[in-house]
Design brief:
The protein has two domains: 3-184, Rossmann fold; 228-328, no CATH class. The chain contains twelve helices and eleven strands. The chain has helices at residues 12-22, 48-57, 67-75, 88-105, 126-135, 155-158, 176-184, 202-214, 220-226, 246-255, 281-293, 325-328, and strands spanning 3-7, 27-34, 61-65, 110-112, 142-143, 230-235, 238-242, 261-265, 273-277, 303-309, 316-320. The strands form two sheets. It has a six-stranded antiparallel β-sheet with strand order 6-7-9-8-10-11. Strand 8 (261-265) and strand 9 form a beta hairpin.
Length: 334
Amino acid sequence: MIKAIALLSGGLDSILATKLILEQGIKIEAINFFTIFCTCSRKNASCLASKSAADKLGIPLKVFEVSKEYLEIIKKPKHGYGSQMNACIDCRIFIFKKAKEYMKERDASFLITGEVLGERPFSQRKDALMIIEKEASLEGLILRPLSAKLLKPTIPEKKGWVAREKLLAIQGRCRRPQIQLARQFSINDYPCPAGGCLLTDPGFSKRLRDLMEHNPNFELNDVQLLKVGRHFRFSPNTKLIVGRNEQENQKLLSLAKPQDLCFYPKDLKGPVAIGRGEFSSDLIYIAASILARYCDSVDDKPIKILYKQSSNNITKSLFSKAICKEKIRDWLIT
C-alpha cells in the first residue's frame, strides 16, 4: 500500500487536505513541527491542535520540536522576511527538508500539505511554492490537494496513486470553499484561521529586531524572555523586563540567568523585573523607579525596592519614586 506523510498543523486546511487523500485509500502518517515562535497550546511537547486532528482522522502523529535549529534560520534567512520577522519561505524549506528525512525513514512515497495557492502572499505564491520544492529537493513529491488542479501534476498523480480529478482548485484567502467542504465531511470542530506564529506579530517582531540588533548571538532563553512582560532598552548591552501579572512574574524568575538582576518591591504588591546586561548604579536606580511606577502605591512616596543577582541571596535595597510616564517612553521597546 502507498504511504504518505501529512504535515498536520491542526488547522482546517491541513485537516481537509489529509482527509481528501485518506478518502482515496492512501495510508497516512502525520507529522507536526513546532518552535519557540508557535502560539499553539502545547502539552508534553505536543501541539494540542494537531493531536486532536490526528485523533479525529484516525492517523498516527509524530511531533518534532525544532526551536534550536530554527533559530539559525531566523537570524539570517536566505529569502528574507515578510511584513514582520516572518521568514516564511526559509521556514517552509527547513520544515520540508525535515519532513523529507522522516518520509524516507518511514518508507513513504510523498508528502501532503494543506497549502492553498495565494492564501498567504509571501510563501504560497506559485513561484514561492516552486522555490520551496526545489530547495528542499522535493520536486513533484509535495501534493497540495486543496489547490492541486491549479498546479502541475505531482508524481503521485502521474503514477496513479492519487486521482487528480478528485482533487480541488481552491485559491486565495476566501474561506468559503473550505468551510463548505468541512460540512460535507462533517468536520465541525477546528481552530479559527488565526496566525499561529509570533514572528507575524508586530509587537513581538519589534522586540526581536531589538534583540537581533544588540545581541546577534541570542539564544532560546532570550527569545523566551521576549514573550513576557514590558521590555525596556537602556543601552546596547542593558535591558529591563517588567512583569505584568503574577503569572509573568513567575515566568521571569524562571527565565533569569545567573548574572541577571532581580528587582521586586518590599511590602507592596507589584511586579518582578529582570535586568539583563551591564547595570551601573545609575541604571539600577532607573530600573527601580520603573518598577515603582507599576507598584500598587497610593501616594507619591518613595518605595523600597529590593534587588539581587539571580545566582545568590545577597539582597540590596534602595528607595525610589515612580518615574514619570513620559520618561518611560525613552526606553520602552514595547
